[in-house]
Amino acid sequence: MQKKGGLMSFRPDIKVVDCTLRDGGLVNNFEFSDEFVKALYKTNIKSGIDYMEFGYKASKEQFDVNKFGKWKFCNDDDIIEIVGDNDTDLKISVMADVGRTDFRNDIIDKANSPIDLVRVAAYINQIPAAIEMIEYCDKKGYETTVNIMAVSKSNDQDLDDALEILGRSCVGTIYIVDSYGSLYPEQMRRLADKYLAIADKYGKHIGVHAHNNQQLAFANTIDALTMGVSYLDSTVCSMGRGAGNCPTELLLSFLKNPKYHLSPILTFIEQHMLKLKEDGIIWGYDIPYLLTGRLNQHPRDAIQFTSEHRTDYKDFYHFLYDKEI
Questions:
Q1: CATH code for the domain of 255
Q2: Cα separations in angstroms, 117 against 85, 88, 212, 318
C-alpha cells in the first residue's frame, strides 16, 4: 500500500488520543489528584487534542475500589466533576477490558453519560467477547474502537481472521497495539498495510498504540501515520506502564495540523509532570524494559525487577532468555 503522507504532510483525518491517565495510571495505581486531572483536561483542550482517555471501566466485583484511584473505574459522576457539560471539541473516552468490565451495569446510555468513546481491549482469542461488548456500546450510542492486544505474539492467520471479523462488525476504529514495545518500524509498516486493507474494505479507521521499550514508540507511531493510520495514542512525558508510550510533546511537535499546539503541553509538564517524578513515580525507558521488548515479552518481570532496584542486567537478560527456550 502506498504511503499517505510524509514529513511535511497535512492530514485532516488525524485524531490524537491522550492516554496519560489510563496508561499512566498503571504506574501510580490511578492515584491522580483532581487538580492534576482538571489541569490535564484544560491542557488537552488548549492543545487541540481530540480525545482524552480518563481510565478504565473496571469491574468493582473483580477490583477492590479501596486499592485503586477512581480512574480505574471511571464513574460517570467523577468524570462530570472534572468536565461539567464538556462544551468543547475534546471528546471523552474510557477503556473497557474484555473479561474485566461489568459493561452491562457500568456502561449506561450515551445520552446520560459524559463519555463519547468506549475503547474495548482484547487479546486475539477474545475477539468474539470483544464483539459482544462493541455491539452493546454501539447500541448505547457510543463511538467504539478495539485494541487487539499483544499483536506481536499473534500468527498471521489468526490476525487475518480477527481483522476480517472486526471489519464486518460495527466497530469504528481498529488499533494496532505494540503491547510489549517489541516492534520495529518495518514491522509496524507491514501491520499498518494489513490493517488498512481491512479499513479500506469495510470503511473503518485504524489507530496505533505504541510502547517505548526500545525507544521506538514515536518512530513507530509516525511510520504508521505515514502509511495512513489516523488515530494516534500518546501520553504526556511518555507516562505509561513500564517504558511508557509515544510522548505527546514529540507527536504534537511533528504533526503539521495547525489545530495542535505544543506550548500548553510544555506548561503542563513544568507545573505537574515534574512533580510526579520528584514524588518518586517511576516510568520510562530503562534497560529492563529494553530486554523484555527485545525478547517480545510482557513487561511484568521488568516492572518487578525495577521495583526491587536491581541492576544485575546480565543475569536478568539470561533469566528472560531462558524463559523463551
A1: 3.20.20.70
A2: 16, 15, 25, 42
